[in-house]
């Protein structure tokens, strides 16, 4: 218990989240037709950091599945999902938040991973070690990282 | 009706130009043995595919070429090592594999039918399990580690003498229950990424996932010499890696789960020629 609290504090400090109390926990996110109206943190997303997360193999790794015309600096974009170009035109901010937090609420049975979810997995592992998950298990992206990614996606206007 | 279906298929193919399709190429081994790398889908995968396609056709020109000649195929060094082991007596019974089975070429036809139901044991056995059964009970020697070098090398030797023969693994009769288990695993979305084998190898083969060109995930090429880790890789080693990449707690090589999965995956590729040791990246 105490350890968990410390971990949250440490995370809050490292990601610059103002206060852990304002953050919506993964289990409490409210979806309406696949969209999430309320910010997960109340802190505006940082689009520049969101861009980094979308391209980074160790973070969102979104380009593993999506091509993105805004990221020609990054090699090897996947072809599994639709191109991200124009995503900010096709979807509202709330819809994008829903898609990133848990795409299966918007697209049933989607292959896209749920980035802000912590339960309901079959044989969850400890990252990519192949070992069972332990108490370090958390969502694929932290709440503020989701907000940053959403802020970035809303900038992708030209189709 | 048949003609309609054919026309429809052509339309579908013409309508999918963005796919990074497998290449058009023919695998001829050492200039003489042609190996089937594309054929009508067998019953186990006919719902998913019109055609089953070997992973060889999803690899680059240089990688494919390395596999076409035994002098260029780095996997063949390990086949030679296994040939020595085949002829060497080990264990308290003082016997070698050759003492019971004759020359390694005599084993042509074995690889294509494994995993296979074993009546006496009342279980489906992978080739590795059968090899260890011989070691323990006929040679009275220590079993090999499931994906250890000696074992992988020996499976490479046994595959090599069957190269070009079509995979022909049985899914019915007493093997059916295990086959069903394997099928269940194939469609289970494991791990934090919630991905099933089918998500990648059935729904998205031909597409890129980051830098990887997804194949149909067949096992006719195993064991596989991978340029990435410069060694021979066993089927269960590949399964382990694919499950690990879904951020899941994986299964152990040799586990009943992976044997069942191997049986099922093998039958999805029935008709493809044995290629082991193949070359992949």
From TrEMBL, chain A:
The answer to keyword Metal-binding applying to this record is yes
The protein's superkingdom reads Bacteria
* PROSITE patterns in the cross-refs: CYTC (PS51007)
Q: Which UniProt keywords apply?
A: Heme, Iron, Metal-binding, Signal
Domain Cytochrome c positions: 45-157
Recorded GO molecular functions are: electron transfer activity; heme binding; metal ion binding
One Pfam match, given by its short name, reads Cytochrom_C
Which InterPro entries does the entry link to?
Cyt_c-like_dom, Cyt_c-like_dom_sf, Thiosulf_SoxX
Hey, what's the signal peptide range on this chain?
A: 1-20
Instruction: Indicate what this protein is called per its UniProt record.
Output: Sulfur oxidation c-type cytochrome SoxX
Q: Which organism is it from?
A: Pelagivirga sediminicola
Organism placement in taxonomy:
Bacteria, Pseudomonadati, Pseudomonadota, Alphaproteobacteria, Rhodobacterales
TrEMBL record, chain B:
Signal peptide span per the entry? 1-20
Which residues are heme c 1-binding?
A: 97, 100-101, 134
**One Gene Ontology cellular component annotation held by this UniProt entry:** periplasmic space
Where does this protein hold substrate?
Answer: 238
> Cofactor note from UniProt?
Binds 2 heme groups per subunit.
Cellular localization per UniProt: Periplasm
Q: Which UniProt keywords apply?
A: Electron transport, Heme, Iron, Metal-binding, Periplasm, Signal, Transferase, Transport
Q: Name one GO molecular function term.
A: electron transfer activity
**Chemical reaction(s) catalysed:** L-cysteinyl-[SoxY protein] + thiosulfate + 2 Fe(III)-[cytochrome c] = S-sulfosulfanyl-L-cysteinyl-[SoxY protein] + 2 Fe(II)-[cytochrome c] + 2 H(+); S-sulfanyl-L-cysteinyl-[SoxY protein] + thiosulfate + 2 Fe(III)-[cytochrome c] = S-(2-sulfodisulfanyl)-L-cysteinyl-[SoxY protein] + 2 Fe(II)-[cytochrome c] + 2 H(+)
- So what EC number does this one have? 2.8.5.2
- Residues involved in heme c 2 binding: 197, 200-201, 242
**Does the record carry Heme as a key word?**
yes
User: SUPFAM superfamilies this protein is in?
Assistant: Cytochrome c
| Entries under InterPro entries matching the protein | Cyt_c-like_dom, Cyt_c-like_dom_sf, SoxA
Catalytic positions are: 242
Highest taxon of the lineage: Bacteria
Cytochrome c domain segment(s)? 69-162
- Name the Pfam families on file: SoxA-TsdA_cyt-c
Spell out the subunit comment. Answer: Heterodimer of SoxA and SoxX.
- Which NCBIfam families would you find in this protein's record? thiosulf_SoxA
Recorded protein name is SoxAX cytochrome complex subunit A
The organism's taxonomic lineage, starting at the top:
Bacteria, Pseudomonadati, Pseudomonadota, Alphaproteobacteria, Rhodobacterales
């Amino acid at each position: 218990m105490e350890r968990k609290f410390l971990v949250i504090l440490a995370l809050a400090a490292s990601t610059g989240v103002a206060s852990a109390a304002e953050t919506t926990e993964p289990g409490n996110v409210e979806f309406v037709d696949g969209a999430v109206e309320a910010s997960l943190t109340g802190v505006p997303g940082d689009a520049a950091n969101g861009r980094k997360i979308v391209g980074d193999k160790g973070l969102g790794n979104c380009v593993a599945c999506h091509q993105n015309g805004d990221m020609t600096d990054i090699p090897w974009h996947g072809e599994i999902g639709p191109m991200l170009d124009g995503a900010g035109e096709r979807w509202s901010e709330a819809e994008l938040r829903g898609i990133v937090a848990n795409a299966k609420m918007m697209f049933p049975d989607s292959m896209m991973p749920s980035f802000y979810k912590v339960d309901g997995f079959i044989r969850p592992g400890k990252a990519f070690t192949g070992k069972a998950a332990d108490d370090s298990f958390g969502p694929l992206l932290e709440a503020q990282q989701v907000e940053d990614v959403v802020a970035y996606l809303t900038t992708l206007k030209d189709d | 009706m048949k003609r309609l279906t054919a026309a429809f298929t052509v339309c579908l193919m013409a309508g999918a130009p963005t796919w990074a399709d497998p290449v058009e190429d023919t695998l001829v081994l050492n200039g003489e043995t042609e190996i089937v790398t594309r054929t009508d889908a067998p019953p186990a995968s006919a719902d998913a595919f019109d055609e089953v396609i070997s992973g060889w056709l999803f690899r680059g020109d240089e990688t494919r070429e390395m596999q076409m000649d035994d002098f260029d195929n780095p996997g063949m060094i390990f086949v030679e090592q296994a040939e020595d082991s085949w002829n060497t007596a080990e264990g308290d019974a003082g016997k070698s594999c050759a003492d019971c089975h004759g020359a390694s070429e005599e084993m042509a036809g074995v690889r294509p039918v494994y995993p296979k139901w074993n009546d006496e044991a009342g279980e489906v056995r992978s080739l590795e399990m059968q090899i260890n059964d011989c070691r323990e009970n006929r040679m009275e020697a220590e079993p090999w580690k499931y994906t250890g070098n000696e074992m992988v090398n020996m499976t490479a030797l046994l595959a090599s003498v069957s190269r070009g023969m079509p995979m022909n693994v049985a899914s019915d009769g007493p093997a059916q229950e295990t086959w069903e288990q394997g099928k269940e695993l194939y469609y289970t979305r494991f791990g934090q990424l919630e991905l099933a084998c089918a998500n990648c190898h059935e729904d998205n083969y031909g597409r890129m996932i980051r830098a990887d060109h997804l194949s149909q995930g067949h096992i006719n090429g195993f064991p596989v010499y991978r340029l990435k880790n410069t060694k021979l890789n066993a089927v269960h080693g590949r399964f382990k890696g694919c499950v690990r990449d879904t951020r899941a707690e994986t299964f152990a090589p040799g586990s009943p789960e992976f044997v069942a999965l191997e049986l099922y995956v093998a039958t999805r590729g029935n008709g493809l020629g044995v290629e082991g040791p193949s070359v992949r990246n």
